[in-house]
Predict the structure.
Amino acid sequence: MITLPVRDIEFIKLLIPQREPVIMVDSLYEFDAVSLTGGLTIKGDSFLVENQQLQASGVMEHMAQCVALHTGYTFYLQHLPAPTGYIGSISKMEIKLLPQVGDTLITKVTILHEFDGITMVNISCSCNGLEIAQGEMKTVIKK
């Protein structure tokens, strides 16, 4: 059994389908059946960073990978490999602020509905104690 929080990137890579240079989650802080808190410390060498800021696409990719992290950890607990998934839709997304290189994102995923490999979640992303992004996302597991 793994003790949370987890900041071991090699373990995180077992839980998500993304690989370098697109890994946008490096921490798993909290997990239960209907929620997860994940994180990312922003590095300057990411191709989603411009002018020392993580761009909106990077914030959304981080949020999506936190959803994948929940799914992957759920499968890990069942002794199954992490599945590949896709973003089905993004709605009500609001990016309020772009974080800087060196900042740490803390992202809370809450599952609203889940049925037959389709998951609807609410996601809230914070940085330095301020909510910088929030929205809803639908993901689909590849069959």
In short: The chain has a mean pLDDT of 95. Strands lie at 27-32, 35-41, 49-50, 53-54, 85-95, 104-115, 118-127, 130-141.
